[in-house]
Amino acid sequence: MNADPLEIQKFSELAHRWWDPTSEFKPLHEINPLRLEWINARAALSGKKVIDIGCGGGILTESMARKGADATGIDLSDKALKVADLHSLESGVQVRYELIAAEDMAAREAGQYDVVTCMEMLEHVPDPGAIVKAAATLVKPGGQVFFSTINRNPKAYLYAVVGAEYLLRMLPKGTHDYGKFITPSELAQFVRAAGLQVDGLKGMTYNPLTKIYSLNQDTSVNYLVACSRPL
Ligand code: SAH
């Protein structure tokens, strides 16, 4: 299976704190409005059938459902999914969560989604290209796919590993493995090999002084990619 058991365990152990905005998941809470608005501006989520691959506790999934999407979240961490499910019950937002691998979901529900999202997940899997391929299979012709991950270069190592995990302690040590980071051109190759086209690339930066995240043209550390499946 295309999953690293230690990665899944790492997220499972923290899962009970997923919706605590001061926890290890604080960065995901803080970037969520930015990525949500970016996706919504491109894909007009209301009424769309959406699947979120590697949804974790459902921060993005639930927010897309709030925008009116018919949202499904999949992950391989049972604990994260239970937290996601409980949270959606509590907030009264309807979301479907399921413990299933992206590749298996792609075999079962090929071509059924208007929008596929896969955020902050590719850098945790052994074969990211296979996840991109599954995303491309899940989306309808004419539909859109969004990825986000971390670039691989000395600055990304300094900011995403040394800065975030050791200096600022925003993330637990060992959250990210530099060797699994993915450059935008590598991701673009996976995307094209899966039959998708790249429509847009966006950088995301964090200013440690103001503690503010922003979307911009700086893709040197964190970045997002918008893709679509040709008709
Ligand atoms: N996408 C969410 C969570 C990111 S954390 C967000 O951005 O808010 C990374 C998530 O990927 C975790 O929930 C982890 O369990 C999941 N994950 C890691 N490897 C996976 C795999 N092979 N298949 C599915 N999910 C995986």
List keywords for this structure.
231 residues, alpha/beta, 8-stranded mixed sheet, 25% strand
Gist of the model:
This protein has 231 residues and is an alpha/beta fold. It has helices spanning 5-14, 26-43, 59-66, 78-91, 102-108, 128-138, 154-167, 184-193, and strands at residues 49-53, 70-75, 95-99, 113-119, 139-150, 197-207, 212-216, 222-228. It has eight helices and eight strands; from the N terminus they run ααβαβαβαβαβααβββ.
Number of helices, counting only DSSP H or I runs of 4 residues or more: 8
Calculate the mean pLDDT score and round it: 97
How would you sum up the global shape? globular
Care to count the β-strands? 8
**Backbone structural class:** alpha/beta
Biggest sheet, open or closed, and with what strands and sense?
Answer: 8 strands, mixed
Quaternary structure type:
single chain
In which order are the strands of the major sheet placed? 3-2-1-4-5-8-6-7
Distance between the termini: 31 Å
Q: β content, as a range?
A: 25-35%
Q: What is the N-to-C order of secondary-structure elements (H for helix, E for strand)?
A: HHEHEHEHEHEHHEEE
Q: Report helical residue fraction.
A: 25-40%
- Unreliably modeled segments: none
Ligands in the model, by name, code or SMILES, are: S-adenosyl-L-homocysteine
- Rg (C-alpha, Å): 16 Å
Enzyme class: transferase
EC number: 2.1.1.222, 2.1.1.64
Binding site for S-adenosyl-L-methionine: 35, 54, 75, 119
GO molecular function: 2-polyprenyl-6-hydroxyphenol methylase activity; 3-demethylubiquinol 3-O-methyltransferase activity
